[in-house]
Amino acid sequence: MKTHSLLLAASMAVSVTADDWPQYRGPHHTGASMESLEPWGAEGLKAAWKTPAPNGFSSFAVAGGFAATLYAVQGKETVAVLEAGSGRTVWTVALDAADYGHDGGNAGANDNKGGDGPRSTPSIDGGSVYVLSADFVLASFSLQNGRKQWSHNLLGDFAGQQIKWKNAASPVVDGDLVIVGGGGVGQSLLAFNKANGKLAWKTCTETVTHATPVVTEIHGVRQVIFFCVSGLVSVEINSGKLLWKQPFKFAVSTAASPIVDGNVVFCSAGYGVGGGAYKVSLKAGQWGSEEIWRIPGHKHVANHWSTPVLKNGHLYGMFSFKKYGDGPLKCVDIATGEIKWEQEGFGAGNVIRVGENILALTDYGKLVLVAGSPSGYKQLAESKAVVGKCWSTPVLANGRIYVRSTTEGAAYEIK
Questions:
Q1: CA distance 386 to 262
Q2: Are 305 and 210 spatial neighbours (Cβ–Cβ below 8 Å)?
Q3: How many CA atoms lie within 13 A of 353 on its CB side?
């Protein structure tokens, strides 16, 4: 472990505020920032800092003055915590060997050679950093100095089975719980007390995928939706009690998280699977779901791993499959699956919602601000952000945009 002595004492007491982005998909599990982002000028954005970020597709989690991500350094997954304002490394901790079971190298944006880098994003909460490694080791570290607080090997301790290309899902923190998938029969979906690591609940016999679970509320009940090999599986958040299931096709890999709009849940996958939307019901205490629409194939509404965002009944995101460097950004009606507009040239990047607008990070490192309107594609601003491949998600937190590539991380000040 490597520790720097200069720490900002006032930053150590971390709490999630409206301006923080403490985990993958943000503070409310929706991919939306509470901050707005206005168009910048033709001169582009100015970097507050840049720092090496070798290998991997982990995004940043930003909270309490710190930014956390995962690298691959000297063949090992590595947790890195930086000062959010300066980019200076506060500490790093090496985890497991970074071998993802494919022959990808650290190649350019126009191919699918991924390389041996982490895909999971850490979560920051209450002075701790939570990490789920490629080998399904869930660990809690002190945000201040990187000291390990507790850990669980889900494959060993909970009889889990490794999946193809290993874990890419991120740990989800909600209330007192850290929620993950990866155990075995009867315990494939798990929740732990975030303070001490004690098991809160275990449930189900599902095979997990690369998709990060989503915490949401449907019919007044707070629940966690896992996108498993069998389809959507929802459990009550405090008990793990099964609420409802919705079968959905699986092929090779499922990696994009579900999107919830009221009682409608959208999900999609690549490899010819496509997308669909499902209405969740609760009648006389019985949960159910029914298909609203379903469009197979990868040319329409398939998300390979790029989870879209929701605004006023419309999905915005990278709907494409293996169109590296030139895949389209699309606007899709969640109620019907109708494509309202599409614009080529984004590739397999990712988006977040920033106020009324959409912030996209192309897979070749350009930030593009787009109006969040179904009436047509309207670009508001663009700026080259980082070099290297970006299969990660941009973050807006406390007046800065944070981005990651397979080469570097950077933060940009906004006014």
A1: 36
A2: yes
A3: 23
Burial letters for 39-61: b for 16+ Cβ neighbours within 10 Å, e otherwise? ebeeeebebbbbeebbbbbbbbb
Residue 234's nearest CA partner among 210, 254, 260 is 260
Instruction: Quote the DSSP letter at residue 179.
Output: E
Q: Which residues of 233-256 are buried (b: 16+ CB within 10 A; e: fewer)?
A: bbbbbeebeebbbbebebeebbbb
Q: Are 173 and 129 in contact (CB under 8 A)?
A: no
Nearest CA to 255 out of 291, 220, 206, 213 is that of 213
Res. 338: pLDDT tops 60: yes
What is the distance, to the nearest Å, from the Cα of residue 346 to the centroid of all Cα atoms in its chain?
18
* pLDDT over threshold 80, residue 404: yes
Spatial neighbors of 339 by CB under 8 A, at least 6 apart, are 300, 301, 319, 330, 331, 332
> Which H helix or E strand runs over 155?
helix 154-157
Residue 155's pLDDT is: 97
pLDDT band at 8 (very low <50, low <70, confident <90, very high): very low
Q: Is 38 helix (H, G, I), strand (E, B) or coil?
A: coil
Q: Cα–Cα distance between 177 and 190 in angstroms, integer?
A: 10
Share of the chain above pLDDT 70, in %: 91
Query: What are the structure tokens assigned to 233, written together?
Result: 């599986």
Per DSSP, the three-state class of 193 is strand
Query: Whole-angstrom Cα distance, residue 206 to residue 281?
Result: 22
- Does the pLDDT at position 1 exceed 80? no
Tokens read off for 390: 């970006």
Tokens of 1: 């472990």
Residue 325: the pLDDT is: 86
Rounded average pLDDT over 153-163: 96
| DSSP assignment letter at 11 | G
Question: Who contacts 157 (Cβ-Cβ below 8 Å, separation ≥6)?
Answer: none
In CATH, the number for domain 2-6+13-404 is 2.140.10.10
- The residues facing 203 across adjacent strands are 189
Tell me the percentage of the chain whose pLDDT exceeds 90: 86
Q: d(Cα 260, Cα 291) in Å, to the nearest integer?
A: 14
Q: Please state, in angstroms and rounded to a whole number, the distance separating the CA atoms of residues 12 and 313.
A: 39
Both tokens of 50, joined, read 């840049």
CA 104 to the chain's CA centroid: 22
